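Many introductory courses stop at the sequence. We go one step further.
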Amino acid sequence: MSRVLKKTLLPLFLVMLLSLSLSMGSGAWAAGTIKIGVITPLTGNLASIGNAVAEGIKLAVKVANDSGGVKGNKLELVVYDDRNVPEEAVSAAKRLISGDKVPVIIGAVGSSPTAAVQQITMREHVPLITPVSMTPKLTEIGDKYMFRATATAAMRETVFAEFVARKLNAKTVAFIASNEDLGRSTVEAAQQEYAKYGNPKTVYTAFFEPTATDFSAELVKIKALKPDVVYIVADSVRASIIVKQLRALNLTGNIVASAEAATDEFLRLAGPAAEGIYFPLDWSVDFDDAKSVEFLKLYKAEYKKLPETKFAVQGWEAAWLVIEALKGAKDYTPASVRDALSKATFDGPRGHLWFDEKGQVQIDSRIAVVKNGKFVISK
């Protein structure tokens, strides 16, 4: 090889080597793959929600990959089970960022684990999108790497509180809520909204540990106060136990519950005791709009069943927002994915989704009531 040719090719080789090195550090790990991190409770007290979220995410990625992936790159999920434990969620986030080197994380589910993970992703400048966590503070602290693909507790209460105050005409309310971020923030948001209407007045508030199973002491106190409404803020298992215990006490007045309890698991566990209970609900398997029908067809084809909760839709939509961001990103570094995610939109079963300047998705909430064992939109 001539000396002139060597001088020509050597700089070119060094440029190519440098480009390859940079690309390996930017999110394009193995040739033709883009990794997406997922943190969700596959076991533990929120396993029914966490598995539904995971199913929605996996379905979205499969559909995208079957259609050619993102710019010819296949998507690869790296999924960790946090059991709804903040410490385990933090450990998973560190592994995803330092070991797996993902440019984006979908998760977590519980508000407390998500808040814990946020401290890591905010420091490391890696975008985090939660499909479920509703505590408002996540998108209120100025973290430009935080995104939420569902309504906050405060957003839901804007609609739900008006329903309780005006439609149910409640003058008094008693809360029984899980002692974690979501439970506390939902109670606070509801009380703030009730104040705008002058009613209902809070006559009792009880917070219980997330794994509790006996609520008799609190419910006896609630019955004695005869509130117009009992508001349950809990997962579907805890909510079903509380509802059955309330019915056994022959409580008078209405029962309402938070969105995370609005699952088929709750209907199954609560049985006839679920009848007449109201929920804030932005999606149900009974919805028949075009996007819902499309999702249900794909879901049933993949899993040979219908989703038991709306959380499969929330996983599906969060994943598609990430996929749309990856399609629009100039490269697959966390910073570029964050910038693209802030502009991402998706038309899903819950409507047209887009993020405001705080990373909060904009979405409408509706009111559902259990009627004949199904969630029906309340008129």
